[in-house]
């Protein structure tokens, strides 16, 4: 059926097209949870068509709670882990840029051209 096994799959968008198996030992039942592929509509569709660069920039400037809510599922899903790995170099570069700005400000220097 084209579904990938993902033991950390949940009800989020990133789990679409996956399945996971569980064993209910109290009832001695084996369960298979299937997460179908879904199509986003409306406002959610805008996020789905967002380029990787735009998503990285948005995530780098978002509130911490929103960042954690969006990125944490990526780190737990084999099928979405590549998103987190692609985000990391962008965040590392942003940290370096902010450290340069911080050093200039602490030294009393100018961080950009006067306008």
Please characterize this protein's 3D structure.
By secondary structure, this protein is an alpha+beta fold. Helices cover 47% and strands 14% of the residues. It contains four helices and three strands. It has helices at residues 43-48, 52-60, 64-76, 81-106, and strands at 4-5, 18-24, 29-35. It has a three-stranded mixed sheet, with no helix packed on it. α3 runs antiparallel to α4. The longest helix is centred in the last third of the chain and has 26 residues, at 81-106. The chain is elongated.
Fraction of residues in helices?
40-55%
Rg, rounded, reads 20 Å
* Count of discrete alpha- or pi-helical segments spanning 4 or more residues: 4
Largest β sheet strand count, sense and barrel closure? 3 strands, mixed
**Beta-strand proportion:** 5-15%
- How do the helices and strands follow one another from N- to C-terminus? EEEHHHH
Counting helices, strands and paired strands, the structural category is alpha+beta
Mean pLDDT over the full residue set: 82
